[in-house]
Design brief:
The chain has 88 residues and is mostly helical. It has one domain. It has three helices and no strands.
């Protein structure tokens, strides 16, 4: 069980770090795709932290997948907006 907590913490830290990098790129370029990736990685990191904080962490919980689905939908919206949105 200890290794699972360690790995969840590593994934959470990595996701939040990636989110900060995408936020930094978004601030520099104002490209909404970077913002969508940043938000999605932040959601994923917070999802892992919530899983760590729960009394009985269970990846099979449907709420874990609903949150992940929301993060992936944000990325999908960013990609679609980048490809089919208004051209500058």
């Amino acid at each position: 069980m200890r290794i699972e907590f360690f790995l969840l913490g590593t994934i959470a830290t990595s996701s939040i770090t990636a989110s900060m990098f995408f936020y930094k790129f978004w601030r520099r370029t104002r490209d909404s795709l970077f913002l969508c990736f940043g938000i999605a990685f932040l959601i994923e990191g917070l999802n892992r932290i919530a899983l760590l904080a729960s009394e009985h962490p269970n990846e099979a919980n449907p709420w874990v997948y609903i949150v992940r689905l929301a993060a992936f939908l944000i990325i999908l919206v960013g990609i679609l907006r980048k490809n089919f949105g208004p051209q500058s």
